[in-house]
């Protein structure tokens, strides 16, 4: 489960000029509550029932991570981070979930419904999300979880969707889950190797191979080999990275799993089916979390790619299946779909 808390201190959510820092953003995020009742407008309060919000932001230009790569498509990771930040902020600010209860993602999904608006034209672009949050298991007016749905538009054109389910754990429950998972991983994992220890430079994955331009944005190492079309890659996020931060003693943050899914899928699709990373876009991602990952333990990603098929426009697409593990313990399973658009 991903327990990364959100909203950046450099982001300015409406009603929240300062929020807990987790990732680096270069533009303010504007969040608007759209309550369904007159009382909600008057009191600026949220009842423990389904609520609607609108988020808007300029897609970043010149960001070290969100604009790093061939510049063909806008980065889906930025939109995922916007939704994650807004959801955490709403949970604590509007639904009154106590700040000491860690929020964990149980499942998440992203879809690019129309690739055309995602193409980077080199000029300013605006993204908006219509967000619906439904509280789950409400006790004394406070939800123990949230079901999240978001519709994405770029420059006014609907082009994507997102879904997630969160739980808010009591601190002792969270600590117990992390401790039990760590002990299980240690049965088959040597703890001496830090998760941010990179492979030797000569063996590192070239950034262009995974659709990046900077080496520090590469979060996977070279595959150990392929058996029946299945690759096993180390996941190696940098400890001090502004988005993929994975410090020893902490959990592995959610953005790492999304980016590692994309990069591992690109490597498998290129090796098996000749996909070109510069013109491949992630159009569908589904993940289900089973436990927490420790940043100071080795993390691996196993990826297998299906045979390519053609979409309605005749473009190749390939679906991959992924599993992230520490030792013999599976942290999460995911599936991803890549579109070759060239």
| The CATH homologous superfamily of the largest domain | Hotdog Thioesterase
Judged by helices, strands and strand pairing, the structural class is: alpha+beta
Number of helices: 4
- Write down the CATH class of the largest domain: Alpha Beta
What series of H and E elements makes up the topology?
EHEHEEEEHEEHEEEEE
- Main sheet attributes: strand count, strand direction, barrel closure: 13 strands, antiparallel
Radius of gyration: 20 Å
CATH topology of the largest domain: Thiol Ester Dehydrase, Chain A
Beta percentage is 25-35%
Q: How many structural units, i.e. domains?
A: 2
User: How much is the average pLDDT?
Assistant: 84
CATH architecture of the largest domain: Roll
- Which percent range fits the helix content? 10-25%
The 3D shape can be described as: globular
For the terminal residues, how far apart are their CA atoms?
A: 36 Å
Number of strands: 13
| Low-pLDDT segments, ≥5 res | 2-24, 191-202
Describe what this molecule looks like in 3D.
The structure is a single chain. Strands 1, 2, 3, 4, 5, 6, 7, 8, 9, 10, 11, 12 and 13 form a 13-stranded antiparallel sheet that branches. This protein has helices at residues 38-43, 76-93, 171-186, 254-273; strands at residues 30-33, 51-58, 103-112, 126-139, 142-154, 157-168, 226-227, 230-235, 280-289, 299-305, 309-310, 316-326, 329-340. It folds into 2 domains: 1-169, Hotdog Thioesterase (Thiol Ester Dehydrase, Chain A), CATH 3.10.129; 191-342, Hotdog Thioesterase (Thiol Ester Dehydrase, Chain A, Roll). With 342 residues, it is α+β, with helices and mostly antiparallel strands.
